[in-house]
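Follow-up to my post from last week.
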Amino acid sequence: MSTATHKLLKGATGDWEVVIGMEIHAQVTSKSKLFSGASTAFGGEPNSQVSLVDAAMPGMLPVINEECVRQAVRTGLGLNAQINLRSVFDRKNYFYPDLPQGYQISQYKSPVVGEGEVIVDLDGGRSVSIGIERLHLEQDPGKMLHDRSPSLSYIDFNRCGVALMEIVSKPDIRDAEQAKAYVTKLRSIVRYLGTCDGDMEKGSLRADVNVSVRKPGAPLGTRCEIKNMNSITFIGQAIEYEARRQIEILEDGGQIEQETRRFDPSKGETRSMRSKEEAHDYRYFPDPDLLPLEFSQEFVDELKAELPELPDQKKTRFVADLGLSAYDASVLVAERESAVFYETVLDKLGNRARDGKMAANWVINELFGRLNKEGRDITGSPVSAEQLSGIIDLIGDGTISGKIAKDLFEIVWQEGGDPRALVESRGMKQVTDLSAIEKVVDDIIAANPDKAAQVKDKPQSLGWFVGQVMKASGGKANPQSVNDLLKSKLGV
Amino acid sequence: MTDLTSLTLAEARKGLADKTFTSLELTDAHLSAIEAARVLNAFVMETPEQARDMAKAVDEKIAKGDAGPLAGIPLGIKDLFATKGVRTTACSKILGNFVPTYESTITSQLWRDGAVMLGKLNNDEFAMGSANETSCFGPVGNPWRREGSNTTLVPGGSSGGSASAVAALLCMGATATDTGGSIRQPAAFTATVGIKPTYGRCSRWGIVAFASSLDQAGPIARSVRDAAMLLRSMAGHDPKDTTSVDIAVPDYEAAIGKSVKGMKIGIPKEYRLDGMPAEIEKLWSEGAAWLKAAGAELVEVSLPHTKYALPAYYIVAPAEASSNLARYDGVRYGLREQAKNITELYENTRAEGFGAEVRRRVMIGTYVLSAGYYDAYYLRAQKVRTLIKKDFEDCFAKGVDAILTPATPSAAFGIGEKGGADPVEMYLNDIFTVTVNMAGLPGIAVPAGKDAQGLPLGLQLIGRPFEEETLFSLGEVIEQAAGRFTPARWW
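User reply:
Got it. Predicted complex:
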């Protein structure tokens, strides 16, 4: 692992270093809510998925959903983090209409997951380690709807009580690029684990970003928290803006006030939401309705044993077993769906050891290139993993050349069909019959005596003959055979 | 026919089984008694139609020989228990006309076993009080009066309606809840039997919460046997309440009449308060003598942290209450006051909806949990709580089976007599009972005698966790020795 050198920002008084810590709220993938049996499905009619517990009716009590606990532990394991066999649910008290109980059940002093680490890949093969401070479980609040009436606000409690994992990083992030890469990596990990769908547009994954600036080596500056970011691009923009804003204030002799800010994507700027003085006193205390959350090491070990392969492990395996470059491997594993696609191609290959690396090139260059061009993602690929492996098999066993394969890929993309059958029916097979190729070679030499005579002095002009032969054979001649024949006939 | 309301629950069960009378007759007798006793203000909601329907249904079951252990027994339900389709308010204005769509676990178990609901009983607002004077429906009258006096006395609280109704023979038993003495103190003030079981013995699901780590439901009844019968139906594990404990419910009635010979009874020296009335001292000694006569062994024990219990309780309970009552915000159900914005909505609704005592405890609770005060108050109180618990554990570890104490420091007092200037004066009522909630132990209050003015006094027995049976056996010894007490009817 190479240590990343991060970006410093230039100011009038010299370089500034940005210090970033993140709190990521990841909605837990589970059928029912953290403390009630109500459904967590997205997009239901407002208030159609609300239990008596969610609505905080008098006398209702929370009961922990064990699947949510398993998901949190799985995520903790995926973050290489300490799993706490005993943790405590606390009440975070504040009044807001989207919070029926008047408190959010969260974990304050004793979270279910402690310290961990995430390795984040950056451009140019650099990578950086970002520390995880903790992960805890808590309830999502409901949703306020302010656009239904000019004078009233409505509330949809469907989301109310859905389990969230709050993943808190250490202040290890140093610039917008690292921040974006960190969120991307975390999103990838939870999606591999199946513990969160990572859908930022639906709000399944959102980030609070803490930003401060300092002169390199100086103590930490005062931070501002940018709330509720649900786009990786905006996170980058918000950090750039906020760091600049703070530097300007400091260089003008001002002070940073600790506050909560909001990012306005249309203006590309952050705006103050509330100052430290206006901050709530949440009066945390252990929730007396719930016993401490306790489980055994065996419970953790069982979950660990069932854990799917994570992106880092997959990448290492691709490099070691298939000889992929670290870069290609990281491109393939970045999204779970891409990795699944690539591995399906591998599984279907006739000769995985021979063609695995070629398959990686095809997935990355031909398939991803084409998908990007058309703005589609891997799940909507017109060429299936099976079809692509069919094409690669045909190249690998010498049935078609790489060049023909590209034509074949285009046909499969446009029309579909079985690659091998297409090669047969459309006569795209490579000609390996030496006598057939020899005839073409002889014809070309005979037609170009001047050029043939020159070859001995200018061996590089052999390429011209290769091109002519390939052209005459419609690209189907085996290039190696053509080369060998020409060399012997021309005496090079 | 004899007055059916004067029977104990056990006697009524026999009469119903023998078909001497029907549940409908028994229920009607109680409905008439309730109607005639409205001046006591024990019921805040009478449900005569529902009662008769339930009675008729259960009579059919009895005829078919398919009757549960409480078949046909008419009960009163404290208004803290959610009852499906029947207004449930915790006697607070803030719940307004709230009608639950659900039934509390405890009441649904009572109906499962054949009991009949007569209506909802008065209590202190959100169970906060020791005299039933904080109810939004007004105070409850104690059926007991001082000899030669017309002054209406309080029945104690918070389960004042339950105690008053049982003592006045308006229902054969009642549900109640106890956070710091709310079952045992009113039982002592009305010569009824009240047991607060071990924390976790009964489900809290569907009971309006006051202080979650202390709240526990139990019955108030006319005799120790009746209390045992009721608790058997009320107790049990409930997966909807994770603090309820999965331990089989014993046949508590089988403990009645069981020998107490050789049992070790602790007399805690710290409960001998300075300035304790001589009558209470005398009662305590008498109770100890009765148990000794029955073969129990008396030992002096020490519970050294007792004096810190009440102050610590008045930190822990309000802290939890301040959070538990946050849901009453005018947004989804209950009272909603007009307002220009959301903050005003909260302020106006809660100012109008909560009474003075509830507001006081919400303020105290909010304060002790605040940043900068948490460690000094809440955390410290929790440490005290651990020490109180340990006091009892040490005592039980020495072989003590139960601890005998007075139930209250005095007999019932007049409405408005206490706590007007200093709320602590009222809080001191719970001095003997709060330790039991802080330690999560079972405690029973049994009538044991009368004071010089003819008012009933009770003794408390505190047991080991989940050993309610011991309390029933010992309680019955006191009941046998002291006799049963019925107030002269003045209403």
